[in-house]
Write a structure and sequence with these properties.
Strand content: 15-25%
Low-confidence stretches: none
CATH superfamily of the largest domain: HUPs
Order of helices and strands: EEEHEHEEHEHEHEHEHHHHHHH
CATH architecture of the largest domain: 3-Layer(aba) Sandwich
Number of domains: 3
Strand order of the largest sheet: 5-4-1-2-3-8-7-6-9-10
Radius of gyration: 22 Å
Distance between the termini: 36 Å
Largest sheet: 10 strands, mixed
Helix content: 40-55%
Oligomer: single chain
Mean pLDDT: 91
CATH class of the largest domain: Alpha Beta
Length: about 400
């Protein structure tokens, strides 16, 4: 597989087959990543983008041979080889020039941090925690627009709205043109290292020594490469070997603990959360027709469909268990049947989605779901019997 670099654009071409069986044609498809704005215009920015951009582009395919027209340093070659081995593949053959490092980087401040920010609950929680720990003036939120192609416009809109509403002192946006099919659950094979690579030049410009990423408290053995803590520790070692004075930093908080913390300490932030997985063209129908039609006294937040896994985490457990608004108090006292119905439907939904979503709906989600079911008198006998068998299969 050939990969080319042109400034802040990295691209590959791969063969695909199109057409019916007897008329199939071999075509070339071009996939690329390009930084349109937001990163410092420096050699170091191009270096970080090219090294981890390569990893992100080839991650869906794991080709046997990688041919580049730019240099790849030894540490990144070893990191990519580790990704292959983690996926049960032989490391690739690299064809192209050896990479060289020609940068001298200044010191960073241990009391300054960067937070990748997409408008979801995790970014909000990291900003809340970091601003309390280091002071608002020492924290920068950075939104990478285009990282999640299906929700680019919504994430960009809500990230900017939140930054203004919550009083972030420092907020930047990186505009990424993302033509890679590296999406969905498998994107975690390379995503978190790619995110850190894009943010390191901004961290140096700001003087930050840490980039706060999501932790690993509820990670399963099947989580892809950059979703594993041991691999992010290896990535930090790579950064140190390259003499880059910035590290990825994380706190291993359970997902529902994060939700509870936000409803406890920053409930005023939660109505602006943007965690929904549903694409904009389907969201209005799901929210207005299905969700509001079934639960007229339980409206989701404006950014939500109400029914995807992320919305269920916030609405089902976060709001039902911990939100103290007058609207939710009335729902819990005067319309308990709506909550009970939502819990019953969610039990059915979990059974239907377990094979594809067990990494997100196991652990603290199930623990708190059972708490909510007991509070509203929902019988989970059949559900628990089903789940016992499924969890045993996963283990």
């Amino acid at each position: 597989m050939r990969v080319r670099l042109n400034g802040m654009e990295i691209s590959l071409r791969r063969k695909i087959m199109r057409g019916k069986e007897k008329q199939r044609k071999r075509l070339w498809r071009r996939e690329r990543l390009m930084i349109r704005s937001g990163m410092p215009d420096t050699y170091f920015s191009q270096f970080m983008f090219s090294q981890l951009g390569l990893m992100h582009l080839i991650a869906p395919y794991l080709p046997k041979v990688i041919t580049t027209d730019f240099g790849i340093v030894r540490q990144i070659r070893q990191l990519i080889a580790a990704m292959y081995r983690f996926e049960g593949k032989r490391p690739p053959e690299f064809r192209g020039p050896d990479g060289r490092t020609y940068f001298a980087l200044g010191p960073t401040d241990q009391e300054k941090v960067l937070v990748p920010y997409s408008g979801g609950k995790d970014g909000m929680y990291h900003m809340y925690w970091a601003m309390n720990a280091f002071g608002p003036e020492n924290v920068m939120a950075v939104h990478i627009s285009g990282l999640n192609p299906g929700n680019t416009s919504g994430e960009r809109e809500f990230s900017a709205r939140q930054a203004k509403a919550f009083g972030f002192r420092h907020f930047r946006t990186i505009d990424l043109l993302n033509g890679s099919p590296n999406i969905g659950y498998a994107v975690m094979r390379s995503r978190d290292m790619f995110i850190v690579a894009l943010l390191v030049p901004l961290a140096l410009e700001f003087g930050a020594s840490k980039i706060i990423i999501e932790g690993f408290a509820e990670v399963s053995r099947t989580e892809p490469f950059t979703g594993q803590e041991k691999n992010m520790l290896s990535f930090n070692k790579v950064l140190r070997e390259l003499r880059i004075p910035v590290q990825a930093f994380w706190r291993n908080d359970r997902e529902m603990d994060v939700v509870r913390e936000m409803f406890t300490w920053r409930p005023d932030w939660m109505p602006l959360v943007h965690n929904c997985f549903t694409t904009p063209n389907r969201k209005l129908h799901l929210r207005e027709v299905l969700f509001n039609g079934r639960y007229p006294h339980f409206p989701p937040y404006k950014s939500q469909c109400g029914l995807c896994v992320k919305c269920r985490i916030i609405n089902l457990l976060g709001r039902i268990l911990w939100e103290e608004s007058e609207e939710m108090k009335r729902l819990r006292t005067e319309h308990r049947e709506e909550v009970a119905h939502f819990l019953k439907r969610t039990a059915e939904w979990v059974r239907h989605k377990w094979k594809t979503h067990h990494d997100m709906i196991g652990g603290s989600f199930l623990t708190n779901f059972r708490v909510a079911a007991r509070l509203y008198g929902v019988n989970l006998g059949a559900f628990n019997k089903f789940l016992a068998g499924e969890v045993q299969q996963v283990d």
